[in-house]
Specification:
By secondary structure, the chain is an alpha/beta fold. It contains 14 helices and 14 strands. A hairpin with a 4-residue loop joins strand 6 and strand 7. The structure holds pyridoxal-5'-phosphate.
Length: about 375
């Protein structure tokens, strides 16, 4: 097979993200037995570094689940929602809708509270929904990848607690890019994945599970097999995975998390993302006719959504601009498909995304923005 034909593009999409050379090379480290002591050499530090990134010690257990972020979201629903209870799914965009669909497709009694695209969760409307539906479990999205909104999970989790419900958080697209404040928000479960801010290939869901979630799961009669967090945790306590893991990805993960924690440093990583958010905002301000889409005060540190002027069509973004950026060596993100379909139908302007997550650096981002600006001017 002629693999020289595979393009090496710099991914500025919102996952999968650009993988550093050292992490790429780690894919050629030796395969190993996942029940052998070789497993421990990779997984003991992986577990420890994940806890460090989350800012927790023994308040949460952490497990790796084969699959991806959605698999871990599904495990949270199947393990923590009984069929005789209501789950409230708060959504501010496509990924909030995904959590709701997962609940519905698992036969749970699910109701959705939907905010407009671009807006963050609003406490008063959440309170009204809690009063109306008296849910046992409430799901929410930390960072809505389709709209670039980062929600205040701390205040909404505490509101959910006032009503005696268990909060669950989808942090798939933000974990590793900012301080997630797990100990302040204290959800029963917080879920993420490898291929976004951790800058690894996809392959595992990652779940932080509080003791109260384990107690709750005991009361849920049918939790499935690989979707059962209790079974998952039995393996995780041995630094193992319940089902056979992708050992290539574990090799890469061991190397990448060690780099994040011990070479770049957690604080430096978070600061780099905050600086890149400011960098993109400053660039957008200089582009005539373009503006920031996400609600002010809730704009993501790891991706930015940009509303294009009327003169730039949906198809121009998706086809012309994307292909021109490909020629320059980049994969451009023309916006979340379903969101742009809705915007088009509503007669609104198109939205594109700039992913600045993972191991994108301010220098790389500056080059990208320069080149993107040149191409936008040519549209
Ligand atoms: C990407 C993403 C998901 C889905 O994760 P997969 O790893 O693709 O299953 C869920 N939620 C959010 C917020 C995401 O960004």
């Amino acid at each position: 097979m002629n693999t020289s034909d595979f393009a090496s593009l710099k991914l500025f999409i919102t996952g999968p993200t650009l993988v550093r050379e050292e992490t790429r090379q780690a894919a050629s480290l030796p395969e190993f037995g996942h029940r052998d002591k070789e497993n421990d050499k990779r997984c003991a530090p992986i577990m420890e570094h994940l806890r460090a990134l989350a800012g927790v010690h023994d308040e949460y257990e952490v497990c790796l689940i084969n699959g991806s972020g959605s698999t871990a979201l599904e495990a949270s629903v199947r393990s923590l929602v009984r069929d005789d209870e209501t789950v409230l799914n708060i959504s501010v965009g496509a990924f909030g809708d995904l959590y709701h669909n997962i609940a519905v497709n698992n036969g749970k009694r699910a109701v959705q509270l939907r905010f407009d695209n671009g807006c963050a969760m609003d406490a008063e409307r959440v309170r009204a929904a809690l009063e109306e539906h008296a849910p046992a479990v409430v799901t929410m999205t930390h960072n809505e990848t389709s709209t670039g909104v980062t929600n205040d999970i701390e205040s909404i989790c505490s509101l959910v607690r006032e009503y005696g419900a268990l909060p669950l958080v989808d942090g798939v697209s933000i974990f590793g890019g900012t301080d997630i404040g797990l100990l302040s928000a204290r959800p029963a479960m917080y879920v993420t994945a490898t291929q976004k801010c951790l800058a690894l290939p996809a392959g595992f869901g990652i779940a932080f599970v509080a003791p109260e979630a384990m107690a709750k799961a005991e009361t849920v009669p049918v939790r499935g097999h690989s979707s059962d967090i209790l079974r998952q945790l039995v393996s995780a306590r041995k630094n193992q995975m319940l089902t056979t893991p992708n050992t290539t990805l574990l090799n890469q993960m061991a190397v990448q998390l060690d780099y994040i924690v011990n070479t770049e440093g957690i604080e430096a990583r978070f600061a780099r993302h905050a600086a890149m958010r400011d960098q993109v905002h400053a660039w957008v301000e200089k582009q005539d006719g373009f503006d920031l889409f996400a609600q002010q005060g809730y704009r993501s540190p790891v991706l930015t959504t940009v509303r294009a002027p009327e003169s730039v069509g949906f198809d121009a973004l998706k086809n012309d601009l994307k292909e021109r950026m490909r020629v320059r060596g980049y994969l451009f993100d023309p916006g979340y498909g379903k969101l742009n379909t809705q915007m088009r139908e509503a007669g609104e302007r198109p939205i594109f995304r700039i992913g600045h997550m993972g191991d994108i650096t301010p220098d790389l981002l500056a080059e990208y923005l320069d080149e993107l600006g040149e191409e936008l001017a040519r549209l």
